[in-house]
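Chapter summary example.
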Amino acid sequence: MTPTLTAFERSPDRGKGQARDMRVRWALEEVGQPYDVRLVSFSEMKEPAHRALHPFGQIPTYEEGDLALFESGAIVFHIAQRHGGLLPEDAHARARAITWMFCAVSTLEPAIVDREIAWFLERDETWYGQRLAMVEDRIRGRLGELSRRLGEADWLDGAFSAGDLLMVAVLRRLNGSGLLAESANLSRYVARGEARPAFQRAFDAQRAVFTAAPPGR
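The structure predicted for these 217 residues follows.
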């Protein structure tokens, strides 16, 4: 059965692949699973039909038969469990890969999203500069810890896994901030993820939505 995921009809990231449907697309491309995409507008995301799939009115959602999921990390986990290639066979290595999945969305992403919120919603406030500096210092701390753990390895724990997929997706949200460039090994790590053919296919697919003619509504 071909799963269907939802994505922004017009993504706020202007096709840069930072919206969270991108990580689901990437996971599906990695495992070779065809999928359909249903584009939703901002108004449609808040309507009852979409909230039945995602109670918080966001994207992505994932539908496969009578299964409906939300939260990109949970969706990637489901894909990784259902298909080979994103989680190791060894039980301990598998558990470590899952740990890195949680680390990406629970330890790294909240601080990065906090910076985005400050930039988009608070930059006209008198205290914006002080708040931004505080948030960026927190991000630098996390990046430094991650950089030391990664060292010169290609991936976080042996072969590429769903942990790396989510971590790279999260770190890409720092593109343009200058923060990622401060860690050479993390910059190379993200570049390796972006060079994967599955990433490129997913990126091109989501980019095509943005470059297409604007919807007539």
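To summarize the output: The beta strands are 4-8, 36-40, 61-64, 67-70.
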